[in-house]
Write a structure and sequence with these properties.
Layout: E1 7-12, H1 18-27, E2 31-37, H2 41-50, E3 54-56, E4 68-71, H3 78-87, E5 91-95, H4 102-114, E6 119-122, H5 129-134, E7 141-149, H6 161-176, E8 181-189, E9 198-205, E10 210-216, E11 223-230, E12 233-238, E13 243-250, E14 263-267, H7 276-290, H8 298-314
Parallel strand pairs: 1-2, 1-4, 2-3, 4-5, 5-6, 7-10
Antiparallel strand pairs: 7-11, 8-9, 9-10, 11-12, 12-13, 13-14
């Protein structure tokens, strides 16, 4: 694509998440939102009132009209819709999880590779300013603890809480730890929906690191936090506030003597705060233009799904 040309984009599924894809695309320079797709007529009318774009009931109406597309539909539709766009020569950003199964994920990755398509998976937390700063701080973690909790919402109940929420933290952890998962244990309970609504998983890595993840969509309080422990350092990150607290143990004279308390110093970390979804979509459009590998490619999305699937098997 010529860098001087506008990137023509579409959004398939304009519900809770997809509507924000549409909003941001209309605000990005050098991007033309051609059309939006949804089976809900009321939703389409609402989006049509906000944005002067083509309104479609069938995603195939966008084929041949767009260079790139966001797929923000229920998980069971990720594979067939992403596949058709990729095969038609369209670059795709598909919301997480990449697909329902590893077989589907592998096929999408291979199609994108064979056709030289940009294929990005919407693990939005990778574009959180605090997470981007975290990557420079974490060196060799020994223990990681994640809590992703929130009240029940009547959406995304086509999948369990592992694929709905926990997969965010799985992706972050895999990005931080360059080591293979060697053991998985998990427990989960369906509370409101027919799917597991609250789950806890323990991952053991070949490096020796252990990660404990809790995800709930039936909690009163909304919590999005990860804590990381490594030698002489404790890190606490709040995803929602985009804030990091880093504490270092500083060696001092006599601090190894019996009864001596080590000196703990807090490090101030500057966070460049911005809307993660906007940064994610800007990155996707840049990849479409430059043809460079996305920060969260299909391969990374597939890796997160693999671990999530292992957890689900143990529920």
């Amino acid at each position: 694509m010529n860098n001087g040309e506008s990137v023509r984009v579409g959004v398939v599924g304009v519900g809770y998440v997809g509507q924000h894809h549409a909003r941001i695309y209309t605000e990005l320079p050098g991007v033309e939102l051609v059309g939006v797709v949804d089976i809900d007529e009321a939703r389409l009318r609402e989006l049509g009132a906000r944005h002067r774009v083509q309104l479609c009931r069938d995603y195939r109406e966008l084929l041949g009209k767009v260079d790139a597309v966001s797929v923000a539909v229920p998980t069971l539709l990720h594979y067939p819709i992403a596949k058709e766009f990729l095969e038609f020569g369209v670059d795709v950003l598909v919301e997480k999880p990449i697909a329902q199964s590893l077989t589907q994920a592998d096929e999408l990755v291979e199609i994108a590779k064979a056709d030289e398509r940009i294929f990005q998976v919407g693990h939005i937390e990778r574009f959180n300013g605090a997470v981007k700063a975290l990557e420079a701080i974490v060196k060799s973690p020994g223990f990681i603890e994640c809590h992703r909790l929130g009240p029940f919402a009547a959406r995304n109940t086509d999948v369990d809480v592992v694929l709905d929420l926990m997969i965010h933290d799985i992706d972050i952890i895999l990005n931080l730890i360059n080591s293979r998962v060697i053991a998985v244990s998990a427990v989960g309970v369906p509370v409101i929906s027919d799917q597991v609504d609250i789950a806890n998983a323990r991952l053991q890595f070949e490096s020796g690191c252990v990660a404990n993840l809790t995800a709930s969509r039936v909690s009163v309080e909304r919590v999005r936090r990860i804590r990381i422990f490594q030698r002489d350092t404790f890190i606490s990150l709040d995803y929602a506030q985009q804030e990091i607290a880093v504490y270092h143990r500083i060696p001092g004279e006599g601090d190894t003597a019996p009864g001596t308390t080590p000196k703990i110093v807090k490090e101030d970390i500057f966070i460049d705060k911005a809307e993660p979804l906007r940064i994610e979509l800007e990155s996707f459009i840049e990849c479409v233009r430059s043809r460079k590998r996305p920060l969260v490619s299909g391969e990374e999305g597939r890796d997160a799904l693999k671990v999530a699937s292992q957890i689900v098997e143990h529920l």
